[in-house]
Amino acid sequence: MVGRRQDPSSRRQAFGMARTGPASQSQVTINRVVIKSRMKMPNAISRPARRNFLLGVLAVAGLALGPLQGHATDADTARWIIGADQARALLADGALLVDARGADLKKAAPLEGAATVIWQDFTNADLPEKGRLLQDDAALTQKLQGIGLSQNVPAVVVADSVNGWGEDGRIVWTFRTLGHPQTLLVNGGISALLEGGPLELTSAKLPGDFTVSRIEAYEIRKEELRNLIGKDGVAVLDVREPREFAGKTPYGESRGGHVPGAKHLFYRDLLDENGHVLSGEALKARLADLGIDAGAQIVSYCTGGIRSGFVTAVLNDAGLKARNYAGSMWEWSAQDPADFPLVTD
Predict the structure, then answer these.
(1) Is 219 helix (H, G, I), strand (E, B) or coil?
(2) Summary count for the chain: helices (H), strands (E)
(3) Helix (H) or strand (E) holding 169
(4) How many other C-beta atoms are found inside a 10 Å radius of the C-beta of residue 91?
(5) What is the pTM of this model?
(6) Over the chain (345 residues), what is each successive 10-residue block's mean pLDDT?
């Protein structure tokens, strides 16, 4: 069950900011300044000059307000993962809820009021490039605006952390890579989010106003990964199942094995039995067990960049330098073995 509340845009006050409570002292001061300024302006001043003067007063007085506290745009962009309580607070204040679960899980338990996506919405349709993001930024912009994504409104992403494949992490990685830094993953997934009872949601403005502006720091291509193999300060993580790392191809890879020098870390090893992510220190200890320094550049891959997208989100949230190879084994295994080798030892 989802509660509905009025769209904050219908409650906009001065300066285009949402105000839901009583006027602050700063607002009262601004109103008085504007009124007083109008009273003192000589009649000889032209209308355009008078308008510009008043706009200047508003701009200067507006600085006294400072940032609005508790508003949806206050999401901490350094964090990629937030707790359920913080997610619920952002949603109550106007954030966009994004349901990234697979179609089967959505059908079994619909999440009313959420924008629904699947990772395939933003990728190439066919193998071997199915894991890679579309290159057409205009098409991606249209898709993202179509679900209500806006530049200055946080997007809160959920999936099923116990029964899914890390789709929430893949979508968070996707949106951030495309230039939306206020995209956040809910720790514990949909079950954690709904533990607090009915959600209070705002209907998204359709279309949204987000425009794709890619951030290259979170993604890596096959040629660059090939050139980084064996380099100091670089760690490559294979986050697939142990059988895949050993050479099995259950999900359509052209060849079996793993990238030379890759360390194995099954993505579910970063979650507890309830789907909550390991804490920062526990995560770094897990990496240290693999011989990975916290200062290394970490590249993750899986079959199609979904599980590795989740791991990339987790690692970046912990303050590590992490990139996702979205093409992953679907793409790598389809290349010339002489240029893109795989090993099984």
Answers:
(1) strand
(2) 12, 11
(3) helix 167-177
(4) 23
(5) 0.79
(6) 40 32 37 38 46 42 36 72 97 97 94 96 97 98 98 97 96 98 98 94 93 97 97 97 98 97 97 92 91 94 98 96 98 98 94
